Protein: LysE family translocator
Organism: Thalassococcus profundi
Amino acid sequence: MTLAALLAFNIALLVALASPGPALLLALRTALVAGPRAGIATGVGLALVAAGWTAAALLGLQAVFALVPFAYFAIKTVGALYLLWIAYTLWRDARAPLADPARRIDPARAFRTGMLVNLANPKSVLFASAVLLVIFPPDLSITAKGLIVLNHFLVEVMAYTAFAILLGTARARGAYPRAKPLLDRIAAGVLGLLGLRLLVAR
């Protein structure tokens, strides 16, 4: 494993992180609603599971999905339904006022939600498999695989922390209530479409 290969992996990872998927939407909205601590906790939960999917890809979970298609179908279906549930609740509560600060999302709950959202997307292991196959040689040592997984986790934590600090400022959070109905319905629409796409995709 070379430094150039690791750099190429990180670039691909950051591009994927910046795309408007369920993980990014959740992280951004949590930081706006509940502040930087909850936003960072969400990011850590997202990063932990994303790194876990990379570990699974390195250990050959894609081959398991190919041998046992029902396992992939079951995980994919549950994940799609979870994303659709989040989309429904966001749409339903779009015009509801923000909760009192004392009742807002606590970091432990934000962490769990981050984990569940990325657990709900088994396509992450397919993405990781494709990227890893292109960038790294097939004969990686167990140490190299561990370093790739740790690197993945740290890159995602740093990226989501930056998002949370940027959007968790008092100014950003002060402006959010005015835009909440529109932003929540946009987020609900995107998450709903992603959930439907995951549900019907082969």
